[in-house]
């Protein structure tokens, strides 16, 4: 049996929320225009700067990550203008869908799901589309576990185009380095329910001076997602609309936790979690979806479907054991499962998942040596 | 002195969150596509139907109330089409701003702030604007404490126009009766942080069959706020984007509380809180902003500024005593203060506010008889 409240949530978001953060969210409500609320916004904004690697104040939106993706589109490019979207999976595809919805001319650079985008490939694509006003790509592609080389991609855009560089960091910011100012990224967005260890409901967007100029001139109608309103209100130490206060309380605490651990250590932990997970999966003879070079420190995709076992059956077995992993999206449905290892996740959590996975594999009739996946991960833990 | 964590938040939202709801929000995260999450959406949706007075499933948006206001506009009327907006205060004005932002031809029916809209006046205004595709108005106008007669306004629209009837119930739904199906309201929206006793971050929209037809044909680009995406996903027992899960846990609990008390009793309680507040204010010789007929059961506005005392000074004194009331918005800034009495608010809370108000008035040099406001409210409590 397994206690239902001991469920090990190892999907790539929503991720588990630490008790400290849960507790912080219990504070009583306050007026959203009060001095107390202003202090909260400023505290969160200041600490978020380090996560984004920027000197500008990240803006706080009360929405899912998709709200921030849409904000990044509607604020920068207007109908009839051109945009390049790099699609390495379902969330690149979402950027493309938003771009199309708004009547923006879409130049779509599709890559095989599971592969990162090569900066040279983007460069040559940009040479074919010199009029693009913005280039959109994902940092971590949640649907495959690919980490795109955003630094190099940004450099490539800057060298070959005047387009804004816009990145979706929803499923990795806070777990991987980000120096958006230094790397030349114009807009970086993220959400609360991934590496930031919060429930869903908040999204963030940090915007460069260069992007603001384009945003100021963009006539696309927008209201709730109008970033200019967020900037104007942040100058007055407030938000344009009532923000999700309890999540902001939690955010301040989660950011304090990241500060205490120290961002370099946080990033190293996620690297270790990735390496442990991959070592375990390999030792069990399962097929990883991404190469070592392309793999994200936050989520690992594993191929099923082609062996004797089926990804969805395996997920059900894992669920019965008290471990939740995600399935595949779109054409990968039933073909892969995904292990989330970001945010409030440590080494023992990975050993737990791997040990449960071994049981689940045996139960679904896949012959694996019990303990072999765990052992491989332990070796990483001890020696890397 | 006053304990800072005993602060009596009596603004018209965010409102205090009951301990039960706080506790419910502490549940661990779950996958937003899991069966558990589906049960949660369905439970909330079923209970919300009673609050809205509809047989359709209210849609769950993760945004502030303004997100839902914008959704009501962009989904129904397209650029170049006409809309009527009844403006009885700052939130009617917000509807008008959204309508203008989207290039919709605005016919604005302005009323003096503090007065409700007369259904006959709306009827004659509609005769001048027969091409309007939708009529927007607020149920409770938060900025003044006016409750518009939405039932009669809806009837007026239905008799004189084919326009959709769209109402903003953000600061009253859950505290006042709403029978949107019976009254002929096509879209009703509300938010979490008012009478529903939750932190901000969730908004809701219930939509009539008649409105869906117009929405299906509306070409206005929209993505995060596209109600069709919410309807399609609700049919699959899910939401299009990751919802604010912790707030949904809280919502289920808050709706259970409303069910236990019984909606007729909830409405009667709010009526009593209004009558007590108004009796107390009158007994203290202060001027109410609205007539008894136009007054909302959820918020009461009181004129300052014209006497020896000043609304903002009074608010500061109240704050020092541990009571938070709201100031005026737009041209009413510094001229009124507003007492919120909705959601998790009972009779003793009103006596507390009034007793603190008496102290604050004395401290700001306004001669009032101590206890006289409290007494008038107690009389209501005992005899009405």
TrEMBL record, chains A, B:
Residue sites binding substrate per the record: 338
Modified residues (N6-(pyridoxal phosphate)lysine): 194
GO biological process, one term: glycine biosynthetic process, by transamination of glyoxylate
InterPro entries reported for this sequence: Aminotrans_V_dom, Aminotrans_V_PyrdxlP_BS, PyrdxlP-dep_Trfase, PyrdxlP-dep_Trfase_major, PyrdxlP-dep_Trfase_small, SP_NH2Trfase/AEP_transaminase
Pfam families listed in its UniProt record: Aminotran_5
Domain Aminotransferase class V: 12-330
Cofactor section: pyridoxal 5'-phosphate
Any one GO MF annotation of this record: L-serine-pyruvate transaminase activity
Alphabetical UniProt keywords: Aminotransferase, Pyridoxal phosphate, Transferase
Keyword Transferase: yes
Superkingdom field: Bacteria
UniProt record similarity statement: Belongs to the class-V pyridoxal-phosphate-dependent aminotransferase family.
PANTHER family: ALANINE--GLYOXYLATE AMINOTRANSFERASE, AMINOTRANSFERASE CLASS V
Name listed for the protein in its UniProt record: Alanine--glyoxylate aminotransferase family protein
Biological source species: Thermoactinomyces daqus
